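Board notes (copied after class):
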Amino acid sequence: MGTLVLVATPIGNLGDLSPRAIEALQGAALICCEDTRRTGGLLSHFGIRGVRMAIANEHTENARVAEVLDLLAGGASVAVVTDAGTPGISDPGERLVVAAIAEGHTVSAVPGPSADVMALVISGLPSARYVMDGFLPRSGPERAVRLAEATTERRTVVLYEAPHRLVRTVTDLHALCGPARRIVLARELTKLHEEVWRGSLGEALAHVAEREPQGEYVIVLEGAPARTEPTDDDIRRGLERELAGGASKKSAVSTVADHLGVAKNRVYNLALTVTVAARQ
């Protein structure tokens, strides 16, 4: 049985291609890639010749499965690369992996560059626990859902974003998180003009507005702060405020419970004491 090998390639600096990656590419019967011209240039730079390439991008990866499985069944090694970074991380590769595993083939990887990991570890934000959320949807309800998930996540969140959508995404994050949440914007990682900007979301709005973003960005967002459990006094104050504004007891209970994120029966029991105190 053959082996499907996911090979991480440089995200910028060609010096980051490992010797084992070169060996895996040289020994492959087929290299599945996003762009044969780009991968061909990489192979040429390292003197790798005579290896057949086939396009397996977001549109053609499924169509490539049968050919890859045939080669693996014959005992050949098939390498998977993307234009830059680790295959399967917001890039093609996952479907080939699932198909190979389903047929009982060995799946391996040559670890290496990954923009999300690099941006995370140099961000200065907590890195022990994080979430990689890739590219956000461009529009629609799914984008709103993903933004809500990212901005309420307690762990550090890593996002990818295209330059022409950076201002919109930073603006959306600011609207949901407020100005104080920390954020890191990284671009051109490992390249000559590598840039890492660190600051608050309030500062980030001004930063992205004063320049024309260029190059794909990695956004590292600080996790949401821990939410403290409301006290009984917090609930009573909320009820008093609602009742003083003319709300009925039922409406006040519902509003305060939703606003503070507590059970309605707890708010209702406290509402009875607020009502008694008001009568006295």
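Comment from the instructor: The radius of gyration is 26 Å. The chain has three domains: 3-113, 116-221, 232-279.
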